[in-house]
């Protein structure tokens, strides 16, 4: 069986990941001229650029080099942080990876704001229940309040 051309594999992965040549160059930190040479077939990338392209395109290096192997990186080569718990999580992470640095920062700030608000809302419910009692809320009191709030029989 004939090995596929790396230029064709790069193009296929770019299309699948919806990346332009300019975006791929920026994210993989590869000179635009070099990437253009790879895509035209004039030159083949060196190993460090194959690694950068595979990582950026989220594909297996062997597949990218044209070998008959799965396109997706093998799980053994992926850190736990890159495994997804759900389709929604996968979509969010892959979308995040497509963002430029400016928008990644906005996403980070927005996510932290959401988490802070969520934490404040969780704490506010417990503290509100004890506000008029002039009592410092303990962890035991918080747990007791949660138990009551989450027990449907308490609301019948």
Structural account:
- The protein has helices spanning 6-16, 21-28, 32-40, 47-57, 61-64, 87-98, 101-130, 139-149.
- It is mostly helical and 156 residues long.
- The longest helix has 30 residues, at 101-130.
- It starts with 5 loop residues before the first helix and ends in a 7-residue tail after the last helix.
- The mean pLDDT is 81.
In short:
The protein has 156 residues and is mostly helical. 62% of the residues lie in helices and 0% in strands. It has eight helices and no strands.
Descriptors:
156 residues, mainly alpha, 8 helices, 62% helix, elongated
Sequence-ordered SSE layout with sheet pairings:
Layout: H1 6-16, H2 21-28, H3 32-40, H4 47-57, H5 61-64, H6 87-98, H7 101-130, H8 139-149
Q: Based on DSSP secondary structure assignment, what is the total number of beta strands? A: 0
Radius of gyration (CA) equals 25 Å
- Enumerate how many helices there are, as a single number: 8
Strand content: under 5%
Shape: elongated
Reported for the largest beta sheet, the result is:
none
